[in-house]
Write a structure and sequence with these properties.
70 residues, alpha+beta, Rhinovirus 14, subunit 4, three-stranded mixed β-sheet, 2 helices, 3 strands, 33% helix, 24% strand, elongated
């Protein structure tokens, strides 16, 4: 491996702009700002909604009901 060609790798502070939480990770940057983190993202918090799937299920049930009537 060649010497002095790699950037300095150190711990940095990651800040979420949505909820304001912070945590440390390793990076070549001094500070990282993210829009959404695991503390406020709907997928990780369990508050995710499946609105599009509900509509699909309703459409399927309507088609099924029409088919059964015939």
């Amino acid at each position: 491996m060649k010497k002095d060609i790699h950037p300095a790798y150190h711990t940095c502070k990651v800040t979420c702009t949505t909820c304001g939480s912070t945590f440390e990770t390793g990076s070549t940057l001094d500070e990282i700002k993210v829009d959404t983190c695991s503390n406020c993202h709907p997928f990780y918090t369990g508050k995710q909604r499946f609105i599009t799937q509900d509509g699909r299920i309703d459409r399927f049930n309507k088609k099924l009901a029409k088919a059964e009537k015939k």
